[in-house]
Amino acid sequence: MGGGVTPSTNPILTLYGYWDNDMLGTAVAGVGDVTGDGWPDAAAGPYAVMGPPPLDGYVFILLGGPTWGTVWTLTANRFLPQCDYPWGFGQTLAGIGDVNGDGIGDLLVGNPIDSQFTTTHGRVYLFFGGSTLDGRGCKDADLSFWGSLASSSRFGQSMAGGE
Fold it and tell me: What secondary structure does DSSP assign to 33-93, as a single string?
């Protein structure tokens, strides 16, 4: 094997989950430039967050750039309307390009264990990208989509995006 660049053994950034055993990193995606700063971004979410309040799902948005040091957060909050089962918020992620035509990439956040009427039919949240993405929650999604009311359809369990 020839020369080349030797990868660093020192991480650029280390993220830790909010809650014990939430399995941050179950969902990891390159999401394009969802912050509108001209740099591609990445996102990471947990598998599921189980326990008493305030244990809710979340998504970390890692802002691209020369240092990769800034992290924004999207959160679920069970006390807000439209967040029926917030523990799985962020279980799946997809950057889907610019669907609203504003020149900034947009983000899908899945919660396949979201429930309504006691079935886990799942929900997908669409967030239009931009400088106001930081700190938003499931009630602030620009659009959301429920899965089938059939028991345990788990809509949003797998998502893919692209430009």
Answer: SSSSSSS-EEEEE-S---SSTT---EEEEE--SSS---EEEEE--TTSTT-SSGGGTTSEE
